[in-house]
Input
Amino acid sequence: MIESVVTVGSGFFVALGVQLLIFPLYDIEISLFQNVQIVMILT
Output
């Protein structure tokens, strides 16, 4: 149970970090809240 929570949580933050780094390179301007929503859908 704890391993699952840690795995999903770390995946969430890694995905969010990647989006924050990559999206500006493609001129995708969205808010932090929108980034979090996308990560929640994809996680």
Notes: Residues 13 and 30 are 17 Å apart (CA to CA).
